[in-house]
Structure formats: structure tokens, C-alpha cells
Amino acid sequence: MKYLPCMLYVSLLMLASCTTQSSENEQNEVEADPKVMMLEDLEQKLERIEELEKKVVLDREMKDYASRSKLIVAYSVFVNNHRQDPRVPEYLFRAGKLANEIGKPRKAIEYLSEVHDSYPNFDKRAESAFLVGFIYEHMLNDREMAQKAYEAVIDNYPDSQWSADAKASIDLLYLTDEQKIAKFKEQQEAQ
Length: 191
What we know:
The chain is mostly helical. Helix content is 80%, strand content 0%. The protein is built from 10 helices and no strands. It has helices at residues 4-32, 34-39, 42-58, 65-81, 88-101, 105-118, 125-138, 143-156, 161-173, 177-190. Helix 4 (65-81) packs antiparallel against helix 5 and helix 7 packs antiparallel against helix 8 (143-156). The longest helix is centred in the first third of the chain and has 29 residues, at 4-32. It starts with a helix and ends with a helix.
């Protein structure tokens, strides 16, 4: 009998913990629901993006793919509902990089291509175009598409650092690992 209050207290703690965990799980589901996000006003969407960005930055070491996915959804919802907002190209660019990080290279290419093709005044257009080639080469192992993307960077941004990187990438594109190592050693000796 003397343990009854103690057991009752422990039972209440467990029940409260389950309820808290359940409401946290429900909150996480709400956070990831694009339908809920679409109903939010501009400030709420921006707050959600800021919170998720902080979480992704904190979780970089832990490789928390769920947070990255939620952030991509938040960016997408914002972009789809606020096309004229000046933050749109940056959010598309970030979504592309995050999609690549979580192993969704085709989605990354889609975002980065939209940045490049739709926002002519965006300062990261050349980088976006280069990243498309990089993803084709390294994530999708599609050398032909990588070469086309790199050549587009060279043609469209001839004086940029991205053009120089694209030229170097093309030079290495069809070499084996052994050939790449030999070429690197050659360059080191020449210096």
C-alpha cells in the first residue's frame, strides 16, 4: 500500500510523457504538411523557414535528413505562393543544394535549373548552372549531360570562376581515376 502513491506518480509521469511525445509527433507532422504551410501568411512562412534553417545548421553533423526535407518543402511552398518575392531565387538555390545533400539529384537539378532559367538578375546563376553539371557528373554519372551543362557555363559565363571550374571538370570528365591521379601529379611537378 505504501508504494501505491509512488506507482501512481510514476504512472502519471509516463502518461504525461506519452501525451507530450504524441503532441510533438503531431506537431512534426503539421510542420511537414504543405497544405498547412500554404495557409500560413508570409510572416509565418518566413518564421518557419528561419526555424528550419537553424535546425538544419545545428544538425549538419548529425545528417538529419528529415529537417532538410522539411526545409525543402517550406522553401517550395514559399516559392509557389510568393513568386514575386525577392527571396524566391535564393530559396530555390538553397532547396537545390539541400535536395542534392539528401540524395535527390534530379530534384536538385530541377530547382537549380529554375533558378538559372527564371531569374536573370540573380547573382548565383553561374554557380547554379555549374552545380547542374556537377550533379550530372558526380551524382547521376551522366557524363554527356554533365559536359553539356559545363559547356553552357563556359559559353554563358566565360569570365567567371565557374567557367574555369567547368573547363577543369571537362578536362577530367572522361579520365579514369588512375589517369586523374597521374594528371594531378604532373601538375604538381610542373609547379
